[in-house]
Amino acid sequence: MQTVLITGGCSGIGAGIAKGLAQKGFRVIATDLNPQAVSSMTAELQALQADSRAMVMNVTSSQDVDNAVLALQDTPVDILINNAGIQHVSPLADFPMDKWDQLIQVMLVGVARVTQAFLPAMQARNFGRIINIGSIHAVIASPYKSAYIAAKHGLLGFSKTMALEFASQDITINTVCPAYVKTPLVEGQIADQAKRHGISEQEVIDKIMLEPMPKKAFITIEELLGTCEFLISPAARNITAQTMILDGGWTAR
């Protein structure tokens, strides 16, 4: 049985992928910095797959990450999904620098920290699958999201570099970049964008979020789950350093 560790795995995209993989028979370890969310997710995962659970881990804390590696030393992580993410919408002139730094720490430095921690065991076993959850904003930009977009653009470069560093082993590293997924994070963005642009929340959905997408639809958790399943399957063993974009045709324009 393969073990999957998912950061930010107790809400939104991470929780959806965690529960989906547990249902598919994977042993899932979902991490989150919210103890209450961890407790709830543990119950949900164990109802789906007896060996699955959640644990507290803050990706910005080296001590937390080291503790997680120690706690899982008898349960080697085969698949790492770096998903933890936060958002803050503001023009740079008003963007608090501590918040700007926090976004970079969670979504870029945190990814490097967790990857560095779990890679040695993958190297020792000559097997690993790492999936970084990016965003459409890893390949395009939008106003008022400078920290998020900087982090996600940096994530692509990090993923490609790691893929090259470990290409001699059976370790692949790819980035999955969805357009908008209807999660609590995006719900918050809808409200923030409505306030920032002085328009209704429905107008944000129609005129900002879905307007660039020829298919005019939010990406679903099921689509992300299927993409992750493919990337960790034997059929994808030579797919590495790639950016898998789920955008409804957005970047074709």
UniProtKB/TrEMBL annotation:
Keywords: Oxidoreductase. Signal peptide: none annotated. It comes from the Bacteria. SUPFAM superfamilies: NAD(P)-binding Rossmann-fold domains (SSF51735). GO terms for molecular function: 3-hydroxybutyrate dehydrogenase activity. Its EC number is 1.1.1.30. Pfam families: adh_short. Transmembrane segments: none annotated. PANTHER family: 3-OXOACYL-(ACYL-CARRIER-PROTEIN) REDUCTASE, 3-OXOACYL-[ACYL-CARRIER-PROTEIN] REDUCTASE FABG. Belongs to the short-chain dehydrogenases/reductases (SDR) family. This is 3-hydroxybutyrate dehydrogenase. It comes from Pseudobowmanella zhangzhouensis.
